[in-house]
Write a structure and sequence with these properties.
This protein is mainly alpha-helical. It contains 21 helices and four strands. The strands form two sheets. It has a two-stranded antiparallel sheet.
Length: about 525
């Protein structure tokens, strides 16, 4: 260690000091220093450093700190909530989500019986070759040698976690079906359903809930819908079924159908000062389904843009989003039948999904409008926020609870949120319904995002129930469709039921799961 420079000591005029060796080494100037200070200086000057010991101590300290930091990093990176935390922070920076709040863990009190063990394997080619396909299977029957290959692994490796629709590529779908509980029979059911929809598309590119009016059908398929004037909503639902399976104007087996369907929507909408109005004829006769129609069609436009990046679609999708924003009731935060009307949970669900689709596509969706949806949900919640009602004066129901919980998920609730856990346990206890497809459609999305045992139990019932109830080749022109199983199904008829069933069976890849994305990470 270098000697201390005595010039740094406060100096005053004085007589030279020579009664100490340390004083002799000081400059010959007049100064006055106390004996204690001089003794300190002497010790510092005489001190010798053990450089070998100093270097070994420093190296050991650095090594210990490095090991501790490495262990801490492993704990954080491998923590199951790390990705959710990071993605939430990114979304918050974009003004999209609420900050994460540590929640109280809730353990299910009662777990249902374990699901049945898997049965023998059948691949998708064998199912599609069966003349009576799709067949009824109570199994997860994917044959990895057929369904999972290097192409699908590459598709998973290329997933864009900032885009919810990125799992719909041909390369990724098979692997995601395998990972999340689908099977070759469920995929065959989707293919058969899309085939039925294609056979009932009209020459103008649109669909109708009155599917029997199609000249090729000529009434062979029973259970037509009564909303004959609601063609925008019918077309939007059919397009969502195709887009959910990765079929676009430039990709998939139904490019022509999707292209003409999107053109029908664009031609059917009306540009207004508030945006692109997709209510169609329902706007003039104040129909109760007006905003259902607009929300469904807006989701279709947003998803099509997210999948294709077509600038023409972007302009129409953004304008449709603008119409939703302009129609929101600023007092309640919701939507209903007419612009600025106090909301109901069912209509709010479709508008919220449209706004979420717009956000995913990179469109402009103001954060304050999303936050107002929270205000609406807060007014309809009960049982500590785990269940939801249709209107404020109503009792909570399973369908509205499923809608409310899905909205909450997109508004930022995570798996540590006690209210969300209670809601999921409630849906898990309700099980899939045999006569309410609307409920099944929303609840399937909630359970899929949630994952775990609750999703496994739900999926094994929901998947097989849909496979078993789909009409087969022996039913002639009905093959690929589903009979009405919904309290409000008569309005939308067989087409409405078939679209919801197909979209429910596409759940494995239709949207990336919010809380299970670690299962999609692969090394390629």
């Amino acid at each position: 260690m270098a000697p201390v420079n005595s010039d740094s000591i406060e100096q005053v005029e004085s007589e030279p000091v020579t009664d100490s060796p340390a004083a002799e080494s000081l400059p010959r100037r007049r100064r006055r220093l106390s004996p204690s200070v001089l003794e300190t200086v002497r010790r510092l000057q005489d001190r010798k450093v053990d450089w070998k010991r100093w270097l070994s101590t420093t190296a050991l300290s650095a090594l210990v700190h490095a090991i501790v930091l490495f262990v801490c990093a492993l704990v954080v990176i491998q923590h199951p909530d790390f990705e959710e935390l990071v993605s939430s922070i990114v979304r918050m920076e974009n003004g999209r989500d609420d900050p994460l709040v540590e929640q109280v863990e809730i353990t299910p009190d009662n777990l249902l019986d374990e699901v049945q063990e898997s049965q023998p394997v059948m691949n998708v080619s064998e199912v599609l070759a069966n003349s009576q396909s799709p067949v009824a299977l109570n199994i997860n029957d994917l044959d990895p040698t057929v369904m999972i290959d290097e192409t699908s692994l590459e598709g998973l490796a290329k997933l864009d976690f900032s885009n919810e629709t990125s799992g719909r590529t041909a390369a990724a779908r098979a692997a995601m079906v395998k990972k999340f509980g689908g099977n070759s029979a469920s995929e065959a059911a989707v293919a058969s359903g899309l085939k039925w929809l294609a056979a009932h598309q009209f020459e103008d590119g649109g669909w109708s809930f009155d599917h029997g009016a199609h000249p090729d059908c000529n009434g062979e398929c029973n259970q037509p819908g009564t909303m004959t004037e609601c063609r925008i909503a019918a077309t939007g639902l059919a397009l969502l079924a195709y887009l959910g399976g990765g079929h676009t104007p430039t990709e998939g087996n139904y490019q022509r159908q999707v292209k003409s369907g999107l053109e029908f929507l664009v031609k059917s909408g009306k540009l207004t000062s508030g945006g692109f109005d997709l209510r169609g004829e329902l706007a003039s006769n104040h129909g109760h389904a007006a905003f259902y129609s607009h929300g469904i069609a807006t989701i279709a436009l947003c998803e099509a843009y997210a999948l294709t990046h077509d600038e023409t679609l972007k302009a129409r999708a953004q304008a449709a989003i603008n119409f939703i924003l302009a129609s929101q009731d600023f007092r309640s935060g919701g939507w209903r039948y007419q612009p600025q009307e106090a909301g109901d949970t069912s209509v709010v669900g479709w508008q919220m999904m449209a706004l979420q689709s717009g956000r995913n596509a990179g469109l402009q969706v103001p954060f304050q409008s999303i936050k107002m949806v929270e205000r609406y949900l807060n007014s309809k919640q009960s049982n500590r926020g785990s269940q939801y009602a249709y209107l404020e004066a109503d009792q909570p129901t399973p369908p509205m609870t499923a809608v409310g919980l899905l909205c909450r998920m997109y508004l930022g609730w995570n798996q540590r949120e006690a209210r969300l856990r209670l809601g999921v346990l409630y849906l898990d206890g309700q099980k899939p319904s045999r006569n309410n497809m609307y409920y099944n459609y929303y609840a399937t999305q909630v359970l899929h995002h949630w994952g775990g045992e609750e999703w496994t139990r739900w999926n094994n019932v929901m998947r097989d129930q849909l496979i078993q109830t789909q009409r087969t080749e022996k039913d002639g022109h009905l093959a690929g469709s589903w009979d009405i199983a919904d309290p409000h199904g008569s309005s939308g008829g067989r087409l409405y039921m078939t679209c919801l069933a197909v979209m429910t069976l596409e759940v494995y890849y239709r949207h990336l799961p919010l809380y299970q994305r670690d299962k999609l990470k692969v090394e390629y």
